Protein: Histidine kinase
Amino acid sequence: MDGFKRKTPEEILISISKLHRGSLKIYIGAVSGSGKTYHMLREGHNLKGQGIDVVICAVSTLQRPETVEQLGDLERVPSIHWMKDGVEQKDLNLDALIQRNPEVVLVDGLAHRNRSDAPFPTRLEDIKFLLSHDISVITTVNVYELEEAMEVAHKLTGIEVAHCVPSDTLELADEVRLIDATPEMILNRLEAGHLKGNQAAAVFKRGNLGVLRELALRLVAEDVNESLEEHREQMGFSGPSGAMERILVTTQYHWNGSIYVRRGQQIAKRLNGDLHVITLRKVNKPLTKEGAAFRRSMMKLVEKIGAKFEELPLRNRRCIPQMLVDYATSHKVTRIVMGHSRQTRWQTLVQGSVINGLLKRTKNIDLFLVADRASQEGERILPAHIQAVKEPYKYKRLSRQEVQAKIEKIKRGRFKVYIGAAPGVGKTYTMLREGNDLLKKGIDVKISLLETHGRKETIQQIGELEIVPRAEIPYQNVRLEEMGTEAIIRLRPEVVLVDELAHTNVPGSKHKKRFEDVLDILEAGISVIATVNVQHLESLNDAVEQITGIRVRETVPDSLLRAADEVQLIDVAPGALQLRMREGKIYAMAKVEQALRHFFKTGNLIALRELALREIADDVDERLESMERKSSLRGPWRRKEVIYVCVTESAQADRLIRRGFRIAHRLKAAWHVSFIARGADGELGPRLEALEKLTATLGGEFSYTEVASRKQIPQVFAALASGAGATQIIVWKDAMVRKLLPLARQMDVLIVADYAMWQTSGNKVK
Structure:
């Protein structure tokens, strides 16, 4: 549904002009060989099958078998060939293409530079010319060929690029699709001799492949975020979408101002968010000499780290909370970073507290208070570089337990996961295609569990793959089917394909969840290729509910993704996914309209896509850091962290635990959950058990403490956190917080907002 807002005359003119302009789709990948041309050609065949006039021109297969096979019977318009430094180049034949006048042209190499006497100097300008003649174009580009990524790619990998395309190129596209490929996949293609061409050897170093892959994921995520914000604005939604973080640092021209900015920078990097810095300056009051010096220093720092800086006029102190809330709301801020209050209790009563004022006014914005260690330890909080941990005893003999652990790891099967933003993106299709490719290479592959949902394209991909019969389990006088785990282990194929990891098994099965069966199969030395959707990750459960208004009941622990040897994203633009839905390629036609009005709404799909891109980018970064590579995009954290999460009988306790896990995971921190409740309560047992189980699933330590009165909770929690050496505590925004803060000034404090679970448009609930 479109918004009801009336279009301006300019918007109407733009809409009319687009009717006479071709559409542009860009396939983007980390490197050559990631599969961009393959997918572009496959889409060309699909379009041709729908009766659309498609031609190819200047397409380079580099004799890759899979890509050559995809050429099929697509009509080729001859390109113009010329030589540069002994290498053959292909330019688009614009005259021939205009004369032929197809509906769609497929062309490789968006960053290509034309011969000197060509009508236009670049392929991008050629494409714009075709678009202006109502010819649509589908093309390809590598991430390091985009101007905005080129410098970062060069800095982190040493790769030099002769030609690039401008930063706004992705904005020109009607659709951008990422073709994700893991380093393992690229290196396997390289070893098989399927990657030919003049690409620099530096590109194919494993670490560089990881960096370029993460760069591509983050770049497309930023592009998706822009379209999400545009969509939300059109629909009249306010507040953050829940898909990305935006950090606001508020500080003064003081010696610790740069400290808060640095801390905000570190938080923004680890959470992959934007950073805004503001100062509030009294009107008509000149800065002191010292204040002016701090101002110059801060502005240099903000410019250096690429943050956005604003100086807001301040009339009186009591206006500060409302000014901060207004700024945060208008800029869709998700977290405000500031220092602890230094006021005494009496000063707070007389002058008012900025922090208390913020707690009263913020609804869906977290508040992060930077520890005041300087007053207690004389320490200034400055970022510290973490040195890579080296093996101290390289020649030390392994213990029996260490040897056994390494043997078990060697025996374990290899685990690969295809992940997507929503059902229907093509995870199962791609898994089956890989299974058939492995079968052709003589590897024993079987389908262990397949959910085709009646999709013809998916069923066709089964090919020669054998399906292992499912196990029958009696339940309530009927016999239901589940994955035949015992049969698989007995047959011992080299690889099995398993759909929908988050599935809950029928009561009476050996395991409650399908992913637990998969772990048994891996332990038996059988490799597994599986599928899952991003909304099924346990720690994202709340974010998905915030985005869609739907609580996903079936989840898998995040550790399952980290245990995988490879995690690959299957990316599809929301418009393309909705089209597949309307064509009946995802659900039965009877369910289509309901799905499009609920989970498959445009805003939901854009936000889930961004969530998936950022989640896999984080996974790539974690793997780069595990290789002790200093060039991971997020950079090092400042010190060893210990996270302490305080939960009570609140209904939101599980959300706070998930939040604690995600923060601890990003900071590589030890984390604890402290459940504090008033006395023994018979009804507390099941709740206590559920929270302890959730904490254990996510890898944290859980403890329970009884108090005689709720008034004791702040003191008890502060003492427990301090005794455990906590560097950061995470609490819910409630009445207890105000009493806790004065007791926790030596620790960072994250006060988690009570996020509205539904997006609002004006005063109406959507």
In short: The chain is about 40% helix and 20% strand. The CA atoms of residues 425 and 602 lie 14 Å apart. The longest strand covers residues 274-282.
